Amino acid sequence: MTPPQRQRRTPARPPAPPPPPAGQEGTRRNPERLFVIGGVDGARADMDLVTLIVARAEPSPSTIPEQAAVLRLCAAPLSVAELSAYLSLPFSAVTVLLTEMLAAELVTARAPIARQALPDRSLLEAVMHGLQRL
């Protein structure tokens, strides 16, 4: 008696990729080189992740899509790290983009509000006395 012969099964064709979730049809983009967004020179202003960006103008029809998105997002102050996350761009590309926008005076950049290193002693004493009275 001969053992049964196994036949290898192969799929007829590979399964189709699943469709994008509703409302996210435009999220699939062709990869672009970052110099297309950042321009030729790639100069950068001195910014860090917590530098706050505020829009000074409204997006016009002539602005590139990334600049228009920054102007819409920065109606209220946003950090460069938040912009990088919202735009799905690396920090370096966002800083080049913001440098161009700063030169064109479309946005302003400011350092975050720094807290004092040590709190005011009189304020701490007032809080302590208020808590003791309770």
Give an account of the 3D structure:
- This protein is mainly alpha-helical and 134 residues long.
- The chain is 36% helix and 7% strand.
- The radius of gyration is 27 Å and the shape is flat.
Q: In terms of per-residue confidence, which ranges show pLDDT below 50 for 5 or more consecutive residues? A: none
Largest sheet: 3 strands, antiparallel
Find the count of extended strands (DSSP E, 2+ residues): 3
Estimate the global geometry from the Cα principal axes.
flat
Task: Kindly state the percentage of residues in helix.
Answer: 25-40%
State the secondary-structure class: mainly alpha
Strand numbers in spatial order across the main sheet: 2-1-3
β-strand amount: 5-15%
Average pLDDT, all residues: 79
Q: How many DSSP helices?
A: 5
Name the helix and strand elements from N-terminus to C-terminus, one letter apiece: HEHEHHEH
Compute the separation of the termini in Å.
95 Å
Rg calc: 27 Å
Give a quick summary of the entry.
This protein has 134 residues and is mainly α.
Features:
three-stranded antiparallel sheet; mainly alpha; 134 residues; single chain; 5 helices; 3 strands
Helix/strand layout:
Layout: H1 34-38, E1 52-55, H2 65-73, E2 78-79, H3 80-87, H4 91-103, E3 107-110, H5 121-133
Antiparallel strand pairs: 1-2, 1-3
